[in-house]
Specification:
Radius of gyration: 17 Å
Structural class: alpha+beta
Low-confidence stretches: none
Number of strands: 9
Helix content: 40-55%
Mean pLDDT: 94
Strand order of the largest sheet: 4-5-3-6-2-1-9
């Protein structure tokens, strides 16, 4: 089985193939299915929906999002006199949530079907590709003219591995190591009533010939590449 072979995971992302990421023991202890957003289509959204089953999200870097005026939803809610009570809480693993806005591209029909979510994500990828190339005004113009909120695609923002080591940070770091725009689609892998166990994720990866890696391997590879975490 292709476990913790980071080079193969990087190549899979570049080819538009899925990668499975287990965060770590003692944290969420969940496996996410991850695709590069630059190669997303409705068939991959269908696969995320049917074979993974968790919330289908778009992820990029907080530092890119800030350049077009996006921030964490918990920060936005913290200024509201009522909702700030909700935003101050944390789940058991302790990390602040990565959620920003939930959006639809204005060209979708209802926003929820596989084609619609694939379109919204492709357009988000365009936005953040502009930011990545320092074309910030183009990105800002596209985002505020061509998207609406709330919608059916949640945007997740990476705080960076030095601050948080969740799937958002691990997957966007993987994209950076693959020399891709940090632009990812991901969903948790679920079982009946609970998250899919690591043992069952191994079986799935073996059956489908998919690379499965853990957060520790990504972090070690990132450090060896000379980057700071």
């Amino acid at each position: 089985m292709r476990f913790n072979r980071v080079d193969e995971a990087l190549e899979a992302l570049r080819k538009g193939e899925p990668v499975l990421i287990f965060d770590s023991k003692g944290r969420e202890e969940e496996v996410d299915m991850v695709f590069y957003a630059g190669m997303i289509n409705y068939e991959k959204i269908y696969r995320l929906r049917v074979e993974a089953g968790g919330l289908i999200c778009y992820a990029t870097l907080h530092e890119l999002a800030k350049r077009i005026g996006l921030d964490f939803m918990s920060e936005i809610l913290s200024y509201h006199k009522v909702y700030k009570q909700l935003a101050s809480k944390r789940l058991g693993y302790g990390d602040p949530p990565a959620f920003s806005l939930w959006v639809n591209y204005i060209g979708v029909k209802t926003g929820i079907n596989d084609n619609d979510r694939a379109l919204t994500i492709r357009k988000l990828h365009e936005v953040f590709s502009h930011v990545w190339k320092d074309e910030v005004e183009d990105a800002r113009r596209m985002f505020y003219n061509e998207f609406m909120a709330p919608g059916h695609v949640p945007i997740l923002l990476s705080r960076g591995l030095e601050r948080r080591r969740g799937h958002t940070e691990l997957s966007t770091t993987l994209a950076l190591m693959a020399e891709l725009t940090p632009s990812i689609v991901l969903a948790e892998m679920l079982d009946k009533g609970e998250s899919l166990s690591l043992e069952k994720a191994f079986s799935y990866a073996r059956e489908k010939d998919i690379v499965i890696i853990d957060g520790k391997s990504i972090i070690e590879y990132w450090r060896k590449s000379g980057s700071n975490v």
